Amino acid sequence: KAKTISDSATAKYSGTQFISFKNFSNYKCIVIARFSELIESELKEKDKPNLIGLLGVLKIINLNDNGMAKDKEKSVAMVMVPYYFELNNSVAKTLKKKPIINLSIGLSIKTIGTQNNKLPGFFSIGVGVVSISNLKLGSRSIMEQDKLKNIYSDLIPYPNKNSILSISLSVVETGNIGFDHKKAEAEITAVKEAIGPTVEDTIKTILSDED
After folding, report:
1. Three-class SS state of 55
2. How far apart are CA 177 and CA 95, in angstroms?
3. CA–CA separation, 91 vs 4, rounded Å?
4. Burial of 205 (0-12, 13-18, 19+ CB in 10 A)
5. CB of 59 within 8 A of CB of 32?
6. pTM
7. pLDDT per residue as tens digits for the range 33-54
8. Taking the mean position of all CA atoms in its chain, how far away is CA 119?
9. pLDDT per residue over 160-211, tens digit each?
10. What is the phi-psi region of residue 140: left when phi exceeds 0, alpha when psi lies from -120 to 50, beta otherwise?
């Protein structure tokens, strides 16, 4: 029973988009929106704000060898920085008396490249994960901006300008059920969901770093 409760306190979802580098280089942020399964006509007026269960914005900060990059095409890396989060409901179980949700967001960038045998192959450019703790659950509850300071992902390699990109984003919601949930486990789940089965060595590295 304890395992069932623990499992229900974690929920994950993800999505993938295929875009050109030109379009990707114009992105300044990542927007996450999770909608209710109910259609608007089924909701009472007071419940309509809950059509958007989660709304989040992460800034994309581009970096070069000297620090923050102004010219995106000269970027060598990027980081994800939480900017705004609003949580109206959760898909993970949490205690009513302390409705807190923790989020882990994983990003994976993949592309087509040339293998050693000269044939095309599918390659991981890089992955990143960022976690936000203690988001209060409630109608249009907004995370205070000062609590988002100094939260960011590790460096993610920036793709080159000649590539078509597969961008995957995964979100793991973890509720407060009175048990201790490790942030590292949620981050690993988020990365696994984002990268899929193509770069298993990355997961092995993350797991060994946590030991």
Report:
1. strand
2. 5
3. 15
4. exposed
5. no
6. 0.73
7. 988 765 555 556 555 555 788 8
8. 32
9. 777 899 999 999 988 876 555 555 566 667 667 766 654 444 434 444 444 4
10. left
